[in-house]
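Record 1 of the preview.
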Amino acid sequence: MSIERGLEFSVLPTPRIHFGPGALSKLPCLVAAYGRRMLLVTGLQTLRRLAVASRMLDELRRAGIEYMRLEVEREPSPELIDEAVALGRATPYDVVVAIGGGSAVDAGKAISAMLLQRDSVERFIEGQPGFTPHDGRKVPFIAVPTTSGTGTEATSNAVISRVGPGGYKRSLRHPAFVPNEAIIDPELMTSAPPELTAASAMDAFTQLLEAYLSPIASPYTDAVSCSGLVHFSRSFERACGDGASDLTVRADMAYAALMSGIALSNAGLGIVHGFASSVGGLFDIPHGTLCATLLAESTRENIRQLRASDGGEAALRKFANASRILTESTTGNVADDCDRLVDLLESLQQRYSFPRLGEFGVREADFDAIIPATRSKTNPVLLDETAMRRILKARL
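->
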């Protein structure tokens, strides 16, 4: 028996996943398997917005779980992580649980990774001066997302931000940082307002598309990405409108986000997320909003550059296939399907009024700082400074 040559890839670990309406009810039992002392990290409004919150806290207390609660207002900064870890060392925890959007889950992930360390988190952030690889030791971590966006419930990195001049948005990363458990309960997502639902979903969508187009994508990540795109396509508009409380719709969006996390972990991301890091470090722009406002123009530029390059046919066929998935139709022509994809992305941009970069204070003069700091090694085509400048200028 022979093995097909060329079909080679590696897959990073995923959490033990508990998916479906009512999955949150498993939390007390899962926590108890790790111990009785829990640090609970939440978004600022998370538990106030969730109808099941008080019942969940009562069930944790009845299970004999002692917990301290930490609220996260925005994307985690190194200072927030260091302060939380200092508090946590005073009362050692058996498990960290994060319930909330991507920022809360990233904060919980980073805290679990740093509770057994003595240095500041900045020492272990990729790209920072004096960077030292983390040894992977952590306190067990359970992720409970309440939005369908970042897919961080399935990734091995936590994004840490310092926003402003000299700022950055970079990752604390180790294969061991993948959550031990991920509880993905669509019931927790029905209260997310339309604007947050749209921006979060566009982050997941961008991750699915960029991972699918990555030059290091594999048949595995292609299957994951395309499956996520199918679920995104059939429920995105309803999730932002009259289907916001429909658990089937919310499950589709939660599944798309989960698939995006698995895909990006194994295939990487492209220029939109390159800008999300560089622009996001300088300006206080919500991550999903930044992805949403840059996706159409970045896709247009990628397609333009692929058409002008040698060997871009395979990537163009993938763009065309993504168009077929999202529109549930085909023109039968790769070039036309690629153009229809850009048209679709522009129509979403207009329909949901995703704000331009200028609304957050970005000016053309800032491009000279943004472009050199932008990395996109897994973009489907190499974009030079002129191409990146075109993308940014079109969305000012």
